């Protein structure tokens, strides 16, 4: 039985981590779904759920096969732990926060892949990024320009996180569960 990898993408500030945390809570008793903590070369500032690995250690971890998928973005290194491949092979739905720039590699590693593109209006995104205080106004404008480029593909499902959070969480959880292989849906009933 083969499961599915759900790549959650979207611009910084769209609320990917918020939706993932809410879905993890709602689906806590569902053994079909695994939420993977990505590894990032940035200390956890409390805003995102990840494990930290010093940037100097990333090359050795990559060489040792620690990651199913890895990439660099915005001066940082990111990795999805190798166990994600085994979880998909075991029939589970594996949900992970990815960079849009890593999607082609993710599609190669995980042929059974669904992309959930988290979106929100530009004004909302600008306000969220400014409230974080991690970037200056020029960096925010660069992020907004990148966010304006839509994620494309037959495997893409969009979830709008610009309104009520409960509505976005409902849509996000529905998108995740819609990826369940037929035999696991039947077995869960």
Describe this structure in words.
Helix 1 crosses helix 7 and helix 5 (122-132) packs antiparallel against helix 6. The protein has a single domain, classed as 3-Layer(aba) Sandwich (Rossmann fold), CATH 3.40.50.300. Mean pLDDT is 88; it is low at 185-189. It has helices at 16-26, 58-63, 83-89, 103-109, 122-132, 137-147, 165-177, 182-188; strands at 4-9, 33-35, 38-40, 50-52, 67-73, 76-81, 93-97, 113-119, 156-160. The protein contains eight helices and nine strands. The relative contact order is 0.23. It has 189 residues and is of the alpha/beta class. Strand 5 and strand 6 form a beta hairpin. Strands 2-7-1-8-9 form a five-stranded parallel sheet, sandwiched between helices. The protein has a four-stranded mixed sheet with strand order 4-3-6-5. Keywords: ATP-binding, Kinase, Nucleotide-binding, Transferase.
């Amino acid at each position: 039985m083969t499961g599915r990898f759900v790549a959650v993408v979207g611009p910084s500030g769209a609320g990917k981590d918020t939706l993932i945390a809410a879905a993890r809570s709602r689906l806590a008793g569902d053994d079909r779904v695994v939420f993977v903590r990505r590894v990032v070369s940035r200390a956890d500032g409390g805003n995102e759920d990840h494990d930290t690995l010093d940037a100097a250690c990333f090359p050795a971890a990559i060489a040792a096969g620690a990651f199913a998928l890895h990439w660099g973005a915005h001066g940082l290194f990111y990795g999805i732990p190798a166990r994600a491949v085994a979880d998909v092979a075991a029939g589970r739905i594996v949900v992970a926060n990815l960079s849009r720039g890593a999607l082609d590699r993710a599609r190669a590693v995980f042929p059974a892949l669904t992309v959930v593109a988290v979106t929100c209006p530009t004004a909302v995104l600008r306000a969220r990024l400014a409230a974080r205080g991690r970037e200056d106004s020029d960096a925010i404008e660069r992020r907004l320009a990148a966010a304006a480029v839509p994620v494309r593909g037959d495997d893409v499902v969009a979830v709008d996180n610009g309104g009520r959070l409960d509505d976005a969480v409902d849509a996000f959880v529905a998108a995740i569960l819609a990826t369940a292989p037929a035999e696991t849906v039947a077995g869960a009933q």
